[in-house]
């Protein structure tokens, strides 16, 4: 007999390299609708050495990459075990996104490190992970995956926007969930912040002091990706190949680069929303970028009143992705659809995720 209540830990390590998000969540199914709560959550910062190692994983040879895949899985398991012990909680299983190293669905490739078996062994708990591979094997983008949670947990909002390393959005079109990556977000802003030895721009305060560089803005807005139809998704490789050269070839101050990049991000998001012709809609914003007051201010200006911006509680802002990957694990446990064809472009819906038991 299937359960209708699950206690799950969701793990998320995003492209912005902020750290590991751990969210202990309860999920309950009542009359075919899901309810959730985030009971305990925390974010573990990567130290500079570990952050650089993750950032440079894309350059490792095959043997070193696989070794780090196992090492990272063990590290995830150890941190989760500490979290469970600290909070004295009961857990049905751990649901882990891992950390994306390669994402090139056009050649059938997506790869997230964080070995599920090593994670299970180190934590002592069952693990569900590797949520993208099946969808890519079915001809899909393998991303975004969060929209199933947007649809089933946050369906009261017209748009769900996440401002992480990459900005992505999901919404319903004629009863089907549509979602795609819009643009770089914190990935771009944090890259520029490194030029002034800062990890990030708190509240967008530095960006706010800058002046718009119209030439740079036009170059960023002209990137070919923005004219592609969905389904589509972005990866770090695209950022390195297409965006960094534009930034590095622009002779301007970090303040102006940040200011212009904020306008670029806001423009691409606003264009996406306005193009749907959904007037007076509700826009839920989560992810670290929701705390960038200047970005939210510029986005509201660009939206021209066509959407009501909603910033939720801090727990939802910070841990929505970890929450939803926990929920994806629940759907996988139930063998229910957690990866949507309408989002990824795969040849069918699927129940994605691989199960590992501790030994």
Q: Which properties best describe this structure?
A:
5-stranded mixed β-sheet; alpha/beta; globular; 359 residues; 13 helices
Describe the structure.
With 359 residues, the chain is of the alpha/beta class. The protein has helices at 48-55, 62-87, 116-123, 133-137, 147-153, 186-193, 205-208, 214-221, 236-248, 254-274, 293-303, 314-333, 341-344; strands at residues 5-13, 19-30, 33-45, 93-96, 99-104, 109-113, 127-129, 159-163, 166-173, 176-184, 281-286, 307-310, 354-356. The strands form 3 sheets. Strands 3-2-1-4-7-13 form a 6-stranded mixed β-sheet. The protein has a 5-stranded mixed β-sheet with strand order 10-9-8-11-12, with helices on both faces. The mean pLDDT is 95.
Summed up, the helix count is: 13
What general form does the structure show?
A: globular
Largest sheet: 6 strands, mixed
The overall pLDDT average reads: 95
Sum this structure up briefly.
With 359 residues, the chain is α/β, with parallel strands linked by helices. The chain is 40% helix and 24% strand. It has a six-stranded mixed β-sheet with strand order 3-2-1-4-7-13. A five-stranded mixed β-sheet has the order 10-9-8-11-12, sandwiched between helices. It has a two-stranded antiparallel sheet with strand order 5-6.
Topology:
Blueprint (H helix, E strand, L loop, with lengths): L4 E9 L5 E12 L2 E13 L2 H8 L6 H26 L5 E4 L2 E6 L4 E5 L2 H8 L3 E3 L3 H5 L9 H7 L5 E5 L2 E8 L2 E9 L1 H8 L11 H4 L5 H8 L14 H13 L5 H21 L6 E6 L6 H11 L3 E4 L3 H20 L7 H4 L9 E3 L3
Helix pairs in contact: 2-3, 6-10, 8-10, 10-11
């Amino acid at each position: 007999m299937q359960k209708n209540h699950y206690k799950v830990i969701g793990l998320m390590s995003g492209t912005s390299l902020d750290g590991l998000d751990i969210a202990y969540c309860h999920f309950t199914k009542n009359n075919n609708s899901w309810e959730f709560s985030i009971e305990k959550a925390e974010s573990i910062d990567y130290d500079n050495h570990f952050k650089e190692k993750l950032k440079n994983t894309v350059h490792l040879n095959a043997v070193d990459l696989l070794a780090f895949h196992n090492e990272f899985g063990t590290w995830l398991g150890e941190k989760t075990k500490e979290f469970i012990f600290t909070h004295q909680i009961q857990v049905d299983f751990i649901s882990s996104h891992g950390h994306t190293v390669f994402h090139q669905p056009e050649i059938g490739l997506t790869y997230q490190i964080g070995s599920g078996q090593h994670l299970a062994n180190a934590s002592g708990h069952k693990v569900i992970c590797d949520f993208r591979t099946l969808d890519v094997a079915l001809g899909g983008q393998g991303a975004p995956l969060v929209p199933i949670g947007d649809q089933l947990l946050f369906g009261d909002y017209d748009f769900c926007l996440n401002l992480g390393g990459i900005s992505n959005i999901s919404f319903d079109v004629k009863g089907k969930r549509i979602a795609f990556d819009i643009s770089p977000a914190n990935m771009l802003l944090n890259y520029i912040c490194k030029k002034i030895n800062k990890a990030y721009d708190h509240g967008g305060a530095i960006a706010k002091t800058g002046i718009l560089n119209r030439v740079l803005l036009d170059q960023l807005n002209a990137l070919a990706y923005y004219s592609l139809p969905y389904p589509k998704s972005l990866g770090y490789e695209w950022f390195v190949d297409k965006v960094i050269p534009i930034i590095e070839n622009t002779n301007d101050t970090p303040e102006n680069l940040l200011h212009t990049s904020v306008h670029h991000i806001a423009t691409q998001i606003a264009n996406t929303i306005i193009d749907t012709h959904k007037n007076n809609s509700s826009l839920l914003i989560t992810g670290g970028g929701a705390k960038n007051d200047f970005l939210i201010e510029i986005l509201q200006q660009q939206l021209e009143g066509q959407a009501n911006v909603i910033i939720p509680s801090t727990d939802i802002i910070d841990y929505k992705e970890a929450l939803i990957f926990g929920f994806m694990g629940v759907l996988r446990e139930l063998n229910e659809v957690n990866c949507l064809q309408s989002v990824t472009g795969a040849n069918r819906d699927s129940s994605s995720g691989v199960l590992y038991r501790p030994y």
